[in-house]
Amino acid sequence: MRAWFLDELTGIGALRLGEIPEPTPQAGEVVLQIHYAALNPADRYLAERQYPAKPALPHVLGRDGMGTVVAVGPDVTGIAVGDRRLVLRGDVGVERAGTFAGYVAVPVESLAEIPRGWEEPESACATLVYLTSYQALTMWGALPPSSVALVTGASGGVGVASVQLAVAMGLFVVALSRSEEKRERLRQLGASICLDPGQPGWRTALKKTLAPRRVDLAIDNIGGALLPEVIETLGDAGKVSLVGRLAGPVPSFNTAALFFRRIRLGGVAVGANTNAESRAGWQEVLLLLARTNARPLVDSVLPFDQLPQAFARMAAGPMGKVVINVKE
Ligand SMILES: NC(=O)c1ccc[n+]([C@@H]2O[C@H](COP(=O)([O-])OP(=O)(O)OC[C@H]3O[C@@H](n4cnc5c(N)ncnc54)[C@H](OP(=O)(O)O)[C@@H]3O)[C@@H](O)[C@H]2O)c1
After folding, report:
1. Contact call for residues 134 and 281 (beta carbons, < 8 A)
2. How far is the CA of 30 from the centre of ligand 1 (A)?
3. pLDDT value, residue 276
4. pLDDT at res. 253
5. How many whole angstroms separate alpha carbon 96 and alpha carbon 294?
6. Which residue ranges have their beta carbon within 6 Å of ligand 1?
7. Fewer CB in a 10 Å sphere around the end CB: N or C, the chain?
8. Which alpha helices (DSSP H) does 37-179 contain, by range?
9. Ligand 1 atom with minimal separation from the 41 CA
10. What is the mean pLDDT of each run of 10 residues along the chain (328 residues)?
11. pLDDT for position 328
C-alpha cells in the first residue's frame, strides 16, 4: 500500500512516500481503508523526537482519520466490513502505525461512529482537538455560566474547538489571533471579543471591555512570552489549562503574579485519556456541538501526495484543521 513513513525520527523533512505491506488485523482489531486523515502539531513533535513515544521504524504518522472497515480480526463483534468509522483516541500514529497510509489496523475500542450529517473530512479531523478542548474546559470543575474563557491560538485546531465548545457551554469567549481575517471568522463562531496578541495594548483593551470582570479560565495553546501576559488578565482564582507551546519556552516571570489571586496552572494531556474517558468525553462533545449546530472547521483538504505541503499549511497558521485526502 502507499504510505508516508519515517525511517528515522529526524523531523518531517524525513517523510517518504512509498510502498509498505498492508496491515492484517490482530485479535480485537479491524483494518480501515483511510478516506481522509488530519494533521496535528504532535505528528511533527513525534517526528522530531520531542514526544515521549518510541515507535518501531519505519513509522507511519497520523493520529486522526476516518475510513471504511475492509477486514475484521478475531474476537471482534459489533462491526463489519463496509462500516465507516473514525479513529477516536489511542496509540494509532503514536506507538503504532498511523493514518497517513492507505490502510491502518485499529483496535476496535479506538473507533467511533461517524456523527450523523458530518462530511467525511469533518469526521476525520475532530476527535483529537475536541477531546483536548473538552479536557481543558472541564478539568477544573464546572464553570458558572457566563464565566469568561480566553483562548490563545484560537484559530488553530484546538483553538477553534475550544471556542465552539465554550460558546456551547454558555461561556463568554475571548479569542486571540494574530490575523484580522481569522478574528472575523472567530466572531462568526461566537467569540465575543477577538484581539491581536501581537498588539501591546491588547491586555488594557481587554480589561477595559471586561471591567469589572476578568478572565476566569485561559486555554493556552501558545506558551512563550504570551503566557505571562495571559496570566495578567486573570481574576481571583483564575485558572490556566496549559495545552501547547507553539511559541516555545516561557521566559522567566515573577511567580508572585500567581500568589495574590490564587491562580492555578494545570497541564492538559489528551494522550493520557483512558479509553473510557475518551468515549465519555466524545459523547459530551457531540451533545455540546448539537446545542449550537456547530461542526468541525476544515481549513483545507490537500491531496495525499502533498502531505509536506499540508504540514507547511499547518505551520503557517490555519483556520481550523488541515486534512489530506488519502483514498483518492
Ligand atoms: N496537551 C495536549 O494534549 C495537546 C493536544 C492537542 C494539541 N496540543 C498542542 O496544542 C498546540 C496547538 O495545537 P493546534 O492543533 O491548535 O495547532 P494549530 O492548528 O497549528 O494552530 C495553532 C494556532 O496558533 C497560532 N500560532 C502558531 N504559532 C504561533 C506562535 N509562534 N505565536 C503565536 N501564535 C501562534 C496560529 O494562530 P494565528 O496565526 O491566528 O495567531 C495557529 O493557527 C500545539 O502545541 C499542540 O501540540 C496539545
Report:
1. yes
2. 32
3. 94
4. 86
5. 32
6. 40-42, 128-129, 132, 153, 155-159, 177-179, 182, 221-222, 243-247, 268-271, 314, 317-318
7. C
8. 41-47, 120-124, 127-138, 157-168
9. 47
10. 97 97 98 98 96 93 98 96 96 97 97 98 98 98 94 98 98 98 98 97 97 97 97 97 96 91 97 95 98 98 98 96 96
11. 86
Sequence-ordered strand ranges (E) for 73-123: 84-87, 103-107, 111-113
Tell the CATH superfamily of the 2-126+296-325 domain. Medium-chain alcohol dehydrogenases, catalytic domain (3.90.180.10)
- d(CA 108, CA 240) in angstroms, rounded, equals 34
**CATH 3.90.180.10 residue ranges in the chain?**
2-126+296-325
| Best mutation site among 46, 221, 299 for ligand 1 pocket (most ligand atoms within 8 Å of CB) | 221
Q: d(Cα 217, Cα 202) in Å, to the nearest integer?
A: 17
Name the architecture of domain 129-270: 3-Layer(aba) Sandwich (3.40)
Q: Please give the distance, rounded to the nearest whole angstrom, from the Cα atom of residue 247 to the centre of ligand 1.
A: 9
Query: How far does the centroid of ligand 1 lie from the alpha carbon of residue 21, in Å?
Result: 34
Contact 62, 6 (CB under 8 A): no
Whole-prediction pTM: 0.97
> Can you read off the three cell numbers belonging to residue 168?
456551547
**Beta carbons within 8 Å of 255's beta carbon, 6+ residues apart:** none
Ligand 1, atom 18: closest residue by C-alpha:
156
